Amino acid sequence: MTLPPDPWFPLRTERLLLRDFRAEDYDDVHAYAVDPEVIRYMEWGPNTPEVTRKVLDGWLEAAKVWPRPGVSLAVELVETGAVIGSIRLEIKEPDNFAADIGYSFHRPYWRQGHATEAARAVVGAAFGALGLHRVWAICDVRNRGSWGVMEKLGMRREGLLRQNHMGRDGWRDTCVYAVLAEEWAG
Ligand SMILES: CC(C)(COP(=O)(O)OP(=O)(O)OC[C@H]1O[C@@H](n2cnc3c(N)ncnc32)[C@H](O)[C@@H]1OP(=O)(O)O)[C@@H](O)C(=O)NCCC(=O)NCCS
Fold first, then answer.
1. For the domain that residue 23 is a member of, what is the CATH number?
2. CA 74 to CA 143: how far, in whole Å?
3. Ligand 1 in contact with 139 (CB < 6 A)?
4. How far is the CA of 79 from the centre of ligand 1 (A)?
5. Which of 2, 127, 135, 157 is most exposed, with the fewest beta carbons within 10 Å of its own?
6. How many domains in the chain?
7. 103-157: per-residue pLDDT in tens?
8. What residue owns the CA closest to ligand 1's atom 32?
């Protein structure tokens, strides 16, 4: 596949602006990257200040390049200007027109539909501007919030990978969700 000449972001939704990260987002990013509840099912964290700095620097460096297959965006709450999370879309299988998504949000902003709103915009761009065929996501089967977002988006659970990942608390089961372009209702 060929990426479009112009980036498919920033994206504006009802409450959110999905945009490239900026150096001044450091405090907002570090606030959720140190929270044990946020990183419970993640492969990273809790971050030291140095690790958050390194990750943010990586995002800032990546943002200088277009086209690029993987994009991590800051999720800014327009009302306050705070960065409340991040969302990623990565075209991991360009020959199959397929990408995966991932997201993390700061705990005070959970359960208010923010992740669903952000992910809906990103998946919409995946099937729209990017012309992809399939978008998938994975999460620990115990991560109710994460697969709750996937189900709200209309993604379908395709399977459960048993003990495929050694997490910090032992072997983990991973569920796989996906949606096809022809199924996407927006
Ligand atoms: C997963 C996460 C991104 C969800 O963000 P969110 O903004 O709270 O999600 P939404 O409000 O859009 O929730 C969508 C649906 O998921 C379900 N859900 C979300 N969080 C839930 C929770 N803690 N418990 C049970 N169900 C939950 C609900 O069905 C919810 O819809 P409802 O509120 O209308 O009932 C957030 O909890 C998070 O950042 N977790 C830590 C990082 C992480 O695990 N990321 C995913 C890695 S695979």
1. 3.40.630.30
2. 22
3. yes
4. 21
5. 2
6. 1
7. 999 999 999 999 999 999 999 999 999 999 999 999 999 999 999 999 999 999 9
8. 111
